[in-house]
């Protein structure tokens, strides 16, 4: 594939995987998308913690820590800026949903170029829309970053306009949850709110980092149940993910938002980057 | 893998697939499990129709019909009994949920041996349990056989006892939907009921075939919203899928069921097999 530089499976340079891998057969696995800056994997400890939570939730054995970290370090070394995507699958099995007694999980690591024009923690406002697609409700999978991503694929297929940066997703009950590939924050009366992720959504690493940074700076942070009106009526709005960091929202559908004081303060906390 | 005889990708003998395939990355695709008997793919037209419905629902291009059927025929030819599993994925793309403008879907075909001891449409009663795992609610994916199968994987992981043949799944609201790898039918007052699949579940090919056969034989058939009590209080209970055909339930949790007149009549309609 153009744009992909390298791929490894279990540490070996390799671009093809056994078709019996349960990642392909059932989406039986997890993934992490990692920003590499100056050869360093940003927020690795938070990514690793989420991967471990995902393993527990899915009943997968934990990856061998030292080996995995060595593989990631090798892929990140000497990269001024790059993206690593780590897939961690349940490995191969015979046909059928039953997992093998002896799970041999597989690590698939992909390194790609840093996206053109993507500046981390940029103050440039995003233009976003509401997606019509509604997220599935499944408390058992909520928060973790598993490989069953048809919700995101279907939602992302709703727009082609390159001027639109992201789409916001609601759940089956109309609660606002997240962006297709980002988490959402809003500010109301000086308090930072981000949607609760009890029934669906991904608990993003940058979301966690921002919540911790905001709390450390004395900003009140709440995980809230929110609907469309809470978002459209917010004083400030921003999105975040591991690659772009945090980015203010300038336009949601027809409505304009200013980059307000809480967003500006958090942006200044993020720059220069505190990993 | 032991137990797997052969694998093809887009008609070429091949056991490894590009790690950038969106089937692996996101579960962006569909599958069908096909019974081969005497070199013939059973109920292929129904499988094909469901695959096409899946393509429409996911926005995937339809597979090239003649080519696909030729590949399936080649894999099925001279096989007294075998199982074919066809995966149909969105093909490769760069990182990110956005599909490429030019989707090059991939056909992955796996042929495996017929499961030892599996007799089609056998009158031998099954022993089944209730799964604790609840299916995700997602009307947009209900009925089709897509590759996001963590629900089934997690449910199937609830039992190891080989004496247990299947587990029944409820949705987030407690409605009974299906077995982990089968559809459910119950008989009450001579009427055949099977769960509605508006919010989740797979519309099985054998389910469709049984509904059509029952109706043709003058048996009333209803797709119903059902809860646990409807199942435990049923006069007769049976499961079906493309491999085992239909099979009466003999025990659900502690409760015993008799193979009643409607089940027996349907079993006789299925034997000798009318494809």
UniProtKB/TrEMBL annotation, chains A, B:
Gene3D superfamilies: 3.30.470.10, D-amino Acid Aminotransferase, subunit A, domain 2 (3.20.10.10)
Listed GO biological process terms: 4-aminobenzoate biosynthetic process; folic acid biosynthetic process
SUPFAM superfamilies named among the record's database cross-references: D-aminoacid aminotransferase-like PLP-dependent enzymes
GO molecular function: 4-amino-4-deoxychorismate lyase activity; pyridoxal phosphate binding
InterPro entries: Aminodeoxychorismate_lyase_IV, Aminotrans_IV, Aminotransferase-like, BCAT-like_C, BCAT-like_N, Class-IV_PLP-Dep_Aminotrnsfr
Keyword tags: Folate biosynthesis, Lyase, Pyridoxal phosphate
Reaction(s) catalysed (UniProt annotation): 4-amino-4-deoxychorismate = 4-aminobenzoate + pyruvate + H(+)
Cofactor(s) it depends on: pyridoxal 5'-phosphate
Stored CDD domains: ADCL_like
Entry keyword Manganese: no
E.C. numbers: 4.1.3.38
Broadest EC class assigned to this enzyme: lyase
Pathway noted in the entry: Cofactor biosynthesis; tetrahydrofolate biosynthesis; 4-aminobenzoate from chorismate: step 2/2
GO cellular component entries: cytosol
Family recorded in the similarity comment: Belongs to the class-IV pyridoxal-phosphate-dependent aminotransferase family.
Known role: Involved in the biosynthesis of p-aminobenzoate (PABA), a precursor of tetrahydrofolate. Converts 4-amino-4-deoxychorismate into 4-aminobenzoate (PABA) and pyruvate.
Oligomeric form and interacting partners: Homodimer.
Protein name: Aminodeoxychorismate lyase
């Amino acid at each position: 594939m153009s744009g992909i530089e390298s791929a490894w499976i279990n540490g070996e340079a390799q671009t093809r995987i056994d078709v019996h891998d349960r990642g392909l057969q059932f989406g039986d696995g997890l993934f992490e998308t990692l920003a590499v800056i100056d050869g360093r994997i940003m927020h690795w400890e938070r990514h690793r913690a989420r991967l471990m939570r995902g393993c527990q939730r899915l009943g997968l054995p934990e990856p061998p820590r030292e080996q995995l970290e060595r593989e990631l370090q090798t892929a990140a070394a000497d990269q001024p800026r790059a993206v690593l995507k780590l897939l961690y699958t349940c490995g191969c099995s015979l046909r059928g949903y039953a997992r093998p007694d002896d799970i041999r999980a597989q690590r698939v690591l992909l390194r790609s170029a840093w996206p053109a024009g993507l500046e981390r923690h940029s103050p440039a406002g995003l233009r976003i829309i509401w997606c019509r697609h509604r997220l599935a409700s499944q408390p058992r999978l909520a928060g973790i970053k598993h490989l069953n991503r048809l919700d995101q694929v279907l939602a992302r297929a709703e727009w082609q306009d390159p001027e639109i940066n992201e789409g916001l997703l609601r759940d089956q009950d109309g609660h606002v949850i997240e962006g297709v590939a980002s988490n959402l924050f809003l500010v109301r009366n000086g308090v930072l709110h981000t949607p609760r992720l009890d029934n669906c959504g991904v608990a993003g690493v940058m979301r966690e980092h921002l919540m911790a940074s905001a709390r450390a700076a004395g900003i009140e942070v709440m995980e809230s149940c929110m609907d469309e009106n809470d978002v459209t009526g917010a004083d400030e709005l921003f999105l975040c993910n591991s690659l772009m960091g945090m980015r203010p929202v300038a336009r949601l559908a027809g409505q304009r938002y200013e980059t307000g004081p809480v967003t500006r303060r958090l942006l200044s906390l993020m720059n220069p980057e505190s990993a």
